[in-house]
Amino acid sequence: MTADRTVGGPGTDPDTGGPTTGGSATGSSAPRSPEPAGAADAGTADAGAADAAVELVGVDKTFPATSGRSGAAVHALSGIDLRVAPGELVSLIGPSGCGKSTLLRVVADLEQPSAGTVLVGGKSARRARLDQDYGIAFQQAGLLEWRTVAENVELPLHVHGVAKQERRARAAELLAMVGLAEFARHRPSQLSGGMQQRVAIARSLATRPRLLLMDEPFGALDEMTRERMQAELLRIADGTGAAVLFVTHSIPEAVVLSDRVVVMSPRPGRITAVVAGRRPRGSATPAGRGVDGAAPDAVDRVDDVRESAAFFAAVTEVREALRASGAHRDGTGRDEAGRDGSGPAPTGGDRP
Questions:
Q1: Which of 5, 191, 290, 292 could, after both became Cys, cross-link 195 (CB 3.0–4.6 A)?
Q2: Within a 13 Å sphere around the CA of 155, how many CA atoms are in the beta-carbon half?
Q3: What is the Rg, in whole angstroms, of the alpha carbon atoms belonging to the chain?
Q4: Residue 312: exposed, middle, or buried by beta-carbon count in 10 A (0-12, 13-18, 19+)?
Q5: pLDDT on residue 25
């Protein structure tokens, strides 16, 4: 397969500390990068490339040095091959600064790869962005205080000129889905952290995307709320059929949510292993009946997984894969390589 080489302009990347790019520009073709260890497993899916939710082939990313920075260019990603099938939930895990968030931003067309092919639903990343084929949720909900909850959910539709009546109907539908219909006229500051994140997820679903890109969306939440939000995400993913590419620092979170857990090495980020997750299926039940909105059936399914021997075995397998990748040598990667694999995840995405 021929890889497209793309180059963008300067900025500052929150993931590696190197400069970022903006916009998109495709140039001449470049040869495919060598396949990294574990990449064959990472690319395994029943769907063809045109039908995959995400298809990455030989993706590299290097941030060039700028006059305001000392040292050489920052090589963030190397030889990434990964396919995410429709409806699949794939987590990215690795030490801080390994390029997880950069990879997510490349898929979202917020960064341009230095080399390689990026397809989203069989389209270029730029075309998928313009067609609103994906939604994004970050660690901070990013809600606008001067807009009501419903108006925040409507925002992507408003930006793209959707009629008011249609916007309101879609917002009402989504708020009912996440169990927040009665809070439609509230302001974000009147909601708990978990409720705000559910609004952010509802907003990311406004355009009916086939893909959700999530960068540590639960990292700032307390442990109990985080666990309920994990159940809520699984319920929504099952109900909508959307594929999810999910960045996390938490081994237990990655295992309980995912069909597959993709382990990345320290910078430059490479895929070094792919571990089968323990995602419970059949969580698409109505919301709003449980604590903080998560449906009891969904919560029970996730709790059952967390208490299973298969879950602990998978946690151990991911931890050992991280150690083998060299994550234990990075002091900032302690959460990924720690012995107990528990406790709150660090905040701040992949920032060193």
A1: 191
A2: 18
A3: 19
A4: middle
A5: 30
